[in-house]
C-alpha cells in the first residue's frame, strides 16, 4: 500500500467516525464532491492546500491525517 492509499484510508476512517458523507466533507473542505472519492481510493496525489482543508474540515491536526 502506497502513501496515497494510506492517506485515503485515513480520510475515509476519520470521515466515517465523524458521521460525515463524502459530499458533506467535500463541502466543508471546499473541494469538488467528485474529487473526495478519488482521494479516499488513493488515486490522487493531493496538494498540501487540500491536506490542510481536509484537516480543518475534519477538525484534526494535519499530522493526525498521517498517523497510523
Question: Can you describe this structure in just a few lines?
Answer:
The protein is 59% helix and 0% strand. It is mostly helical. Helix 2 crosses helix 4 (48-58).
If you had to describe this structure to a student in words, what would you say it looks like?
- There is one protein chain.
- By secondary structure, this protein is mainly α.
- It has a single domain, classed as 434 Repressor (Amino-terminal Domain) (Orthogonal Bundle), CATH 1.10.260.40.
- Helix content is 59%, strand content 0%.
- It has 4 helices and no strands.
- α2 packs across α4.
- The longest helix has 15 residues.
- It is globular, with a radius of gyration of 10 Å.
- Keywords: DNA-binding, Transcription, Transcription regulation.
- It comes from Flavobacterium flevense.
- It holds the Pfam family HTH_3.
- InterPro entries: Cro/C1-type_HTH, Lambda_DNA-bd_dom_sf, TransReg_Diox_bact_type.
Amino acid at each position: 500500500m502506497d502513501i496515497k492509499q494510506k492517506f485515503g484510508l485515513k480520510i475515509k476512517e476519520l470521515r466515517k467516525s465523524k458521521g460525515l458523507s463524502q459530499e458533506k466533507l467535500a463541502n466543508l473542505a471546499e473541494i469538488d464532491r467528485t474529487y473526495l472519492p478519488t482521494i479516499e481510493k488513493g488515486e490522487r496525489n493531493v496538494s498540501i492546500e487540500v491536506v490542510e482543508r481536509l484537516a480543518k474540515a475534519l477538525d484534526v491536526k494535519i499530522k493526525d491525517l498521517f498517523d497510523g
